[in-house]
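User: Design a sequence. Structure:
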């Protein structure tokens, strides 16, 4: 899973990136400021520890999220007037987009013209994403129109249908409706998937507050969420500078200091949870004496699809899935006891994997 972080200059985007990834990309270099930075964040999950105890696993492997810090264009929107090159590639490849907006006061960091306005800044970048999609669609329409020359009747019908579909999507985009908001047929969605449109992706707007705004984060979120609902964006608030400093501390000291400030769950954990929520993901587990591993799947993923995630050979030889919920297995204490109590289920290839399932795929290759 890949998440691209974008923001206007002076928004503190890179600070938020370093906080969420706990400095995983190393220190930012001003000389390297035009290049994206990548870091991998491990998804915290206490269930891995319990499962490792039950199975006597040698190691536990958590889910991971790759974050990309895309540089802001000096003096303008983070993605500029016209998205292209490496920046566009990263944005199109991302599963989720995080827009960082400034909501802090700092005399040493120049305030943007018009003062701090998180909603305005979020809409500025969302408008840039929309413009990028319109350019992609217009280029495709031009190619389709050019394809009419020399096309046979059947081909012309197909091209006409594509042109009509793209025109409808473009019209809704021009009216301010992101692709993810539009009521699209399955066929249209499949066609558009190849275009990798930016407004088809989930968006999370993160208001980067200062320490003086810690007690107003909930208020900030409740104000931003309805304002951005028309853009189908989620909203969150965090203090990037404080979270970055806390991320450098020993875990015990961090927990103690966080408690003294009355903070909620760690900001990085919140961002990870929001990312998973935006994609409607579930976690399932595989476990044995060698390894306990967490896997991510979109809600509704079937057992055969989950098997394919683990290994294509397992999916090819799929027989059935032995499945038990984490809570049931934790109470039973072992697979043998779960089997004795009838808590272990045998599921077929079409079983939808649910949150917390511990799955053992039986297969024959």
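Assistant: Done.
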């Amino acid at each position: 899973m890949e998440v691209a972080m974008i923001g206007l200059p002076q928004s503190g985007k890179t600070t938020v990136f370093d906080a969420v990834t706990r400095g995983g990309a190393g220190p930012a270099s001003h000389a390297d400021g035009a290049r994206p930075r990548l870091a991998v964040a491990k998804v915290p999950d206490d269930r891995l520890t319990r499962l490792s105890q039950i199975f006597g696993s040698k190691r536990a492997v958590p889910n991971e999220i790759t974050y990309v810090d895309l540089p802001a264009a000096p003096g303008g929107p983070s993605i500029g007037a016209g998205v292209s090159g490496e920046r566009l590639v990263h944005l199109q490849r991302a599963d989720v987009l995080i827009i960082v907006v400034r909501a802090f006061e700092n005399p040493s960091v120049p305030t943007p013209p018009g003062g701090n306005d998180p909603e305005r800044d979020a809409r500025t970048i969302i408008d840039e994403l929309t413009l990028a999609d319109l350019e992609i669609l217009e280029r495709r329409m031009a190619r389709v129109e050019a394809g009419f020359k020399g096309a046979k009747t059947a081909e012309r019908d197909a091209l006409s249908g594509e042109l009509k579909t793209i025109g409808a999507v473009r019209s809704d985009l021009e009216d301010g409706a992101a692709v993810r908001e539009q009521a699209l047929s399955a066929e249209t969605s499949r066609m558009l998937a190849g275009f990798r449109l930016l407004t088809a992706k989930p968006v999370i707007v993160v208001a980067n507050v200062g320490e003086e705004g810690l007690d107003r984060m909930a208020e900030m979120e409740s104000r931003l969420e309805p304002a951005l609902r028309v853009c189908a964006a989620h909203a969150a608030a965090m203090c990037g500078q404080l979270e970055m400093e806390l991320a450098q501390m020993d875990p015990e000291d961090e927990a103690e200091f966080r408690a003294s400030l009355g903070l909620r769950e760690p900001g990085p954990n919140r961002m990870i949870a929001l990312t998973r929520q935006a994609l409607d993901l579930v976690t399932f587990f595989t476990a044995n004496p060698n390894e306990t591993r967490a896997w991510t799947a979109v809600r509704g993923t079937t057992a055969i699809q989950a098997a394919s995630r683990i290994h294509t050979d397992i999916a090819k030889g799929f027989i059935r899935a032995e499945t038990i919920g984490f809570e049931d297995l934790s109470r039973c204490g072992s697979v043998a006891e779960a089997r004795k109590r009838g808590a272990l289920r045998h599921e077929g290839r079409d079983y939808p994997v649910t949150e917390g399932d511990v799955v053992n795929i039986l297969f024959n290759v």
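Residues 187 and 193 are 10 Å apart (CA to CA). The chain has three domains: 2-115+200-279, 129-199, 300-363.
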